[in-house]
Fold this protein.
Amino acid sequence: MDAVLIMQMIMAAVLAAVIYSIIGIAPGTDETAVLAPVTLVLVLTGMEPIIILSFFISAIVAKKLTDSVPVAVAGIPGGVMSTPMVEHALVLKKHGLTDLSIRKMASGSVIGTTVAVPVSLILANALIPVSDVIKDYANPLFFFGAVFLALMTKNKILALASIIPFALLIQGLRHLYWGVGVVPEGTNVFISFFLGITIGPVILTLFELLNKDKRNSLQRFGKKDITYNKKNRYKGIPNPFKILTGKELLSSSFTSLIGSLTFIMSPVGITIFLGELFTSRIKDPVKKASRAISSMDGLTNAAYISGTLIPLIALGIPLSPMAIGPANALFNAPPVFTLEHNMHHVLSNADFIWATLIGAIVAIVITYFIIVKFSNQICAFIFTRIPHEAMLGLFFALVLLLAFMDAGWINIGGVLLIGMVAGVLHRWGINYGVQFMILYSAPWIISKLVG
Amino acid sequence: MTKTNHSEDEQSKNNIEVWEDLVNIKDLVLSLFICSFTTLTAYFIAPNEPPQPLFYGLIGALIGFGICSYFIKPKRSMREAESEE
């Protein structure tokens, strides 16, 4: 590995840390929606895979570090994964300890990263021997993944019942594109369908705005009130081992370990479960809350990193909620990456270690220090300067662009259609995990259906 | 939610919730159009050799994002709290 490449990796990681520190703070940014399109675009530009990986690792670490900020400051989740932390962060906010809350969460994140990187590298290498067996069954595995994740949702039967119709919609569109000749037969349109599912909830809402009755009946709001404390700047160099108490260090390391080991499960569920387990016996509300948020943040961070790295290094197929969601482009972004030729096949073990270390360290150094020191200023800037409309516009435009590139004008309609259906499914509680698994297994499901 | 009296009255009670945050319908539509327009325009004026069009499109999207951030006001109001135990 030469110095130029390492420099490029560091630069990519710095860029990711800066961009995703900002995005992480903006409220309501779903992990998949903000990470997947940008990663996809980078992969499609044909950039060196190892540089993309350092970018991605830095992005997830930075995003995870900063999405605790809106939780602490305003009680608004910065992403789906920080939702379980809101209730505990609100306790600290009520006691006027917003700054403490941010420091605890960010430090928990650092612990999570520190634990997850070595654990996932070891676990991935341990899994390599069985990977050939797993790979042969990739297609049925995606189908069973869909069934499994469907059974984990609240409305199990509803989720199960939507698997085949949704698969039909996806394959139906693909066959239509082959039929009218916008896409060569056998080429599966994938990227834009993936993005259509991702922004499905937004597309559905946009269509509903065109319905006059619906529009008038929507609940109206004034402005979102956000209170914050301006003082309390942290003095000295932030050090997670000082910010967290001994017990907090222990429990966040432990939850991080569990988060890494259970990479195939949904992190949100485990976060809630372990968070309760560790804190249910603590009486003092402030201690309880800070213990909860530091361990939860450690866990989600660890689940992110291991959920990306383990399938990537060991399998080459996206078999975890993280891999099939935000990290999807590292596995499948035709024509650059396919399931038979992606980062798993291109990068060596040393490459993975280098990219991960550079990405994680750069993000921690930049984002952790900035967050602990300047969280209030950053928050104030983003809350008052970046409108939610612009974020939605940006992602909508990216989806439009990639839809057009995939299969021309007709596909913009196709992606809107997928988005509408995906949005309805989402509203029914059928999460992204189920929908993405269906997207992957759709060709297999249909081929089995017709026999 | 809590009832607070805002100073900008004609703006208040005009926002809806999309994806966990508040937006104004007109601003949202405007933003979607601006971003889509800048993105696709950049894509089509790019030299026709990959990955150039994609790069141009991405830059176009960022320009759109910048324009919208400049002209549209976020629907959040920040208040400094003095209460500390």
